[in-house]
Amino acid sequence: ALKDCDWSLLADVRSKYGNDKVDEYLAERLTLYPTKKFEDNNAAWSTFMTIFGLLDGLVMYAPVWADYYYSALEEFYEDGVLYLEFRSLVPTLYDLDGTEFTPMDTVRIYVETLEKFKEAHPDFIGSRMIYAPIRNTNSEGVNAYIKTLKEIKEKYPDFVAGFDLVGQEEMGRPLRDYIDELLSIPEDIDFYFHAGETNWFGSTVDENLIDAI
User: GO CC terms for this protein (predicted)?
Assistant: First the structure.
């Protein structure tokens, strides 16, 4: 738990300050629409990642994560989507007794939730995961990602669609820095690199688009 931090029930906070003020407070911290413009791309990304930090504690509680995935499937299904491929960091989930889940546990929750959804929606074809951890790491980190990827693929071969690296490109190393590591990935695992998220020209970020192709 955080030191020098007071916790209050949200119901009590709403009673004290009123729903409108609480909703406004949450909206300002959970959306990417500030009252002033971002100075640059780094400032936008900093706010973006802060939002993820606030959401993590909410959605990474294991039972909520399962409901979160089920609800996402339901929304796509209602929009007429019968097959879905999605990117996931495969985050470390937790339970109220302090237990931290392994990556394999997180994927198991995905698979079990998907099967539950397919039972309720027989015409839904399926969903597969693109394992997409954070790109801002070193060669040892990428090797650890690949080890996890291979373990997940072995345990759940039909659920893994492929591999990607996500996160702000300017703050991470370019794809070409990981060529040796990436080429060690088995041929039955596809790459789904998304790159070139910039209007710069001639930078390593811009060149990521070429390397990805």
Answer: extracellular space
